């Protein structure tokens, strides 16, 4: 881990010395892409930055596109309405292609609930590669990126619905060739589209290092990158060091029973002046292969009351649940010009 920290801090020094951290410019419109099209990023409202309206995670890859839609809607829509009534305006859906992404279904849920829903492009490399299609092994990172760029430009599965971010994943252990290639394809896609790259990384610090090396190779800022499941890593100090370089830290495992843990994580970010780099969510699922709902409302029923007790102002809460995802997912190329 020390090696990773040294490596990251060297790059950070270069960025600071050369004054090359990216800045917002007025010329770039801040927008996000929902399943209903482009929206001003400032209109995002309270946002859950990593959930699943439905998924078929666990099924064989060839079966993951099929849902019993009538039953799905009867479970998902009432729950999604309840979540909306609690104050949620936008949900980023992390169900990737090949484990259950169906943008037509997401659009119906959005129509029925009024929630803004954002879907993704990319390929999920974790779960021992079971959701990687065969072609990904034969194609180059440029060819894979071309597929994702095409979804960005022309829409997904003929629907005209465009992705709002790139979803990728690393398995545990030393980063594999395929997971690394998929990430490189994501970085190439970012350079063409400005889509943010959200990567299931968990506690895999070797994967953090590999990703930073590839970001650096393409001169893409860590501002374009979300460390998904960062809360799986115990060392909050390390998360702070990555946040201070611009990486987005996704604390996406909130449950009713773990609010104390999340309060102490947030305290560390508040003390370090880095609350503006935190994304909060549950990684819930309203239709996990048709099973019981894995809830995504504890932030509103449990964590926010605890935050208020701990002195978080409404402004601070708004920053974490609205301003941060607005910034993180704004479609914008984040290039380091050294
Ligand atoms: Zn997830």
Helix content: 40-55%
* CATH homologous superfamily annotation: Metal-dependent hydrolases
For the biggest sheet, the summary is:
6 strands, parallel
Q: Predict the CATH topology.
A: TIM Barrel
Approximate shape = globular
Elements, N to C (H/E) = HEEEHEHEEHHEHEHEHEHEHH
Termini gap: 27 Å
Instruction: Assign the CATH architecture.
Output: Alpha-Beta Barrel
Strand arrangement, major sheet = 6-7-8-9-10-11
- Gyration radius (Cα, Å) is 19 Å
Polypeptide structure, described:
This protein has 338 residues and is an alpha/beta fold. The protein has a single domain, classed as TIM Barrel (Alpha-Beta Barrel). Helix content is 42%, strand content 12%. It has a six-stranded parallel sheet. Strands 3-4-5 form a three-stranded parallel sheet. Helix 3 links the parallel strand 4 and strand 5 (116-118). Helix 5 (141-154) packs across helix 6 (177-193) and helix 9 packs across helix 10. It is globular. It starts with a helix and ends in a 9-residue tail after the last helix. Zinc ion (ZN) binds next to loops.
What's this entry about, in short?
The protein has 338 residues and is α/β, with parallel strands linked by helices.
Topology:
Blueprint: H1 2-18, E1 31-34, E2 37-40, E3 47-51, H2 69-85, E4 90-93, H3 103-113, E5 116-118, E6 120-121, H4 135-138, H5 141-154, E7 165-169, H6 177-193, E8 197-200, H7 205-217, E9 225-228, H8 236-244, E10 248-251, H9 259-271, E11 278-280, H10 298-309, H11 314-329
Parallel strand pairs: 3-4, 4-5, 6-7, 7-8, 8-9, 9-10, 10-11
Antiparallel strand pairs: 1-2
Helix pairs in contact: 1-7, 2-3, 5-6, 6-7, 9-10
The chain binds zinc ion (ZN).
């Amino acid at each position: 881990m020390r090696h990773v920290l040294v490596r990251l801090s060297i790059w950070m020094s270069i960025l600071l010395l050369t004054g090359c951290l990216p800045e917002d410019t007025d010329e770039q419109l801040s927008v996000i892409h929902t399943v209903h099209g482009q929206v001003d990023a400032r209109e995002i409202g309270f946002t859950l930055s990593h959930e699943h309206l439905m998924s078929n995670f666990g099924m064989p890859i060839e079966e993951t596109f099929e849902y019993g839609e009538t039953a799905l809607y009867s479970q998902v829509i009432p729950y999604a309405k309840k979540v909306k009534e609690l104050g949620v305006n936008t949900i980023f859906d992390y169900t990737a292609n090949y484990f259950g992404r169906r943008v037509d279904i997401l659009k119906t849920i959005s129509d029925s609930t009024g929630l803004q829903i954002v879907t993704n492009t990319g390929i999920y490399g974790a779960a021992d590669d079971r959701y990687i299609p065969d072609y990904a092994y034969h194609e180059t990172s440029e060819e894979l990126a071309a597929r994702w760029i095409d979804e960005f430009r022309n829409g997904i599965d003929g629907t005209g619905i465009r992705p709002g971010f790139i979803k990728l994943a690393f398995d545990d252990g030393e980063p594999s060739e395929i997971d690394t290639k998929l990430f490189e394809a994501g970085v190439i896609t970012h350079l063409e589209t400005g889509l943010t790259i959200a990567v299931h990384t968990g506690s895999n610090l070797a994967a953090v290092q590999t990703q930073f090396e590839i970001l650096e190779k393409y001169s893409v800022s860590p501002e374009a990158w979300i460390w998904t499941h960062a809360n799986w890593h115990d060392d909050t100090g390390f998360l702070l060091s990555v946040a201070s370089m611009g990486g987005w830290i996704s604390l996406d495992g909130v449950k009713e029973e773990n609010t104390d843990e999340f309060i102490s994580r947030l305290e560390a970010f508040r003390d370090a002046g880095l609350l503006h780099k935190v994304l909060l969510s549950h990684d819930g699922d309203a239709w996990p292969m048709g099973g019981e709902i894995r809830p995504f409302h504890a932030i509103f029923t449990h964590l926010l009351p605890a935050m208020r007790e701990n002195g978080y102002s409404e402004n601070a809460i708004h920053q974490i649940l609205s301003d941060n995802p607005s910034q993180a997912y704004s479609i914008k190329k984040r290039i380091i010009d050294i």
